[in-house]
Amino acid sequence: MLPFAAGTEAADHPNMLLIITDDQAPEELSFYEAGSRLETPVLDRLASEGMVIDDAHHMGSWSRAVCSPSRRMIMSGRTVWHIPGSPREELVPADLADFSMPAVFNRAGYDTMRTCKGGNVYGAANRKFDINREAR
Fold first, then answer.
1. What are phi and psi of 132, to 5 degrees?
2. Are 17 and 31 in contact (CB under 8 A)?
3. Domain ends where: 10, 33, 56?
4. Which domain, by its residues, includes 118?
5. How far does CA 116 lie from the centroid of its chain?
6. How far apart are the C-alpha atoms of 112 and 130, rounded to whole Å?
7. Are the beta carbons of 2 and 16 closer than 8 angstroms?
8. Quick check: is 105 in a domain?
9. Do 33 and 90 share a structural domain?
10. Residue 115 burial by Cβ neighbours in a 10 Å radius (0-12, 13-18, 19+)
11. Are residues 41 and 97 located together in one domain of the fold?
12. What's the gap between Cα 9 and its chain centre?
């Protein structure tokens, strides 16, 4: 459930920024641990003004890679066996993209944007973003 009522204006909603990184230990970011290897002043400020998730767990994959399944689970809100690309494709609703993160936020009046590396994506959900930029 989203933290706002249907029919309200996007200006009444908080801004949201979701940052996902691959192959990065949390202690490398200074807002998680003092004396980290990286200086992240902008991320530190964003973390101090917002919410930081510091106990997330990945439920697995059907291959050695976890980046594609994790992005698809986040975008769809579904478990690893209920996302596009899994060996259990019959468990994925045909209209899943219409209930993905960008589609839900768009219906709530948000302007949505996605920018990231190419590949490892959930294409049908990514097309729901108002702006979609992939690195080449």
1. -135, 110
2. no
3. 56
4. 59-136
5. 11
6. 5
7. no
8. yes
9. no
10. exposed
11. no
12. 23
Specify whether 45 is located in the same domain as 107.
Answer: no
Q: What is the pLDDT along the chain (136 residues), one digit of tens a residue?
A: 344 445 555 567 788 888 877 777 777 888 877 667 788 889 889 989 888 877 777 778 887 778 888 888 988 999 999 999 899 999 999 999 999 999 999 999 999 999 887 666 788 998 999 998 887 6
* Structure token pair of residue 77: 């809100």
| Cβ–Cβ under 8 Å, residues 125 and 102 | yes
Neighbours of 107 (CB within 10 A): 13
Alpha helices in the chain (DSSP H): 41-49, 67-76, 101-107, 123-126
User: Cα 82 from chain centroid?
Assistant: 17
DSSP 13: S
Provide the domain count of the chain: 2
- Tell whether pTM > 0.85: no
Reading the block at residue 46, the tokens are 């964003």
